[in-house]
Write a structure and sequence with these properties.
With 314 residues, the protein is mainly α. It has twelve helices and no strands. The chain is elongated. The two termini are 87 Å apart.
Amino acid sequence: VLRKHETEAPVLPEHLSALERAVLQRCLQKDPAARYQSVHDLIAAFGGQEPSLGAPPLPPVRGEAASCVPPPLPPAARTPPPLPPPLPPLPRRRRGLGVLFLLCVLVLPGALLVFMASAREERSAALASERAARERSRSFPRAATSAPRPTELRDKVNQHVYAVQRSARNPTRNKVELSELDAAKLGAPPDFENYCAQVKVLAKAPAFSAGHAQKLERLGRPSFLAGIALLQDLDYEDQDECRCAANLHRFLAHVTAIEGLCVEAPARDPSSTDTCRFIVMADGWRRLAEQFAKDDAEYKKLLVCKGKLAAGDR
């Protein structure tokens, strides 16, 4: 069909006259340049007369239906009525006022709705923050005047984490020396070595196990101190021991809900920057235990302020 549209001439009805065939064939030429270039040329080809196109007359209507058929309209009635004259253009000032009115009608309601929605969202956010503050105040009652509030303790812990992170950004310049954790000074139990052995199994695992970490978490603060003590004894120039350190970091973060003191194990032999960064993080965990987990009571406050433990839990 597409090829016929491009090459073959259309088939015209047989009842057309020779003049009508010639005119229609020129109108349907494949090349637009070969067609009539204007309506005046088409009318001139018909000799100035309206073409009838040779349509056969309709058969006469007989019976009662003949009276229902209206007579044909005269030629004058078939011409469309003249169009009304165009309206004069509005003055420039009046057009500007009309555009301004449309803008006011269309834009102002939308801007008002957006303003009301933003005000409603700000109000709801303020109410939510006040509600959360009230809930926090209920969850963390002030016990004594000298004891720091949980929010103050949380701020101090966050400041410590931020300071360690700043040192870890440029660890080769901010070098630190690893110091052994004094577990006895922090009130570790006599069988502290057994806790270290159990945590070391998690550290040497090929991948970190959250289930294993949860079991060690039930042992309480000694497992937390054991993980920090093991960090001080690792050789951070060895890739395997860096992987053990990464597992210990994840274990300590799981126990305390402190996420800012973790380092991922390098994929190859650790560089000097990697080694210094692991040392900075190990020292950060040690100083955190010495400042905020000196005994079981302070360790519980640390867990409470980080949301890991409720105020009434033991």
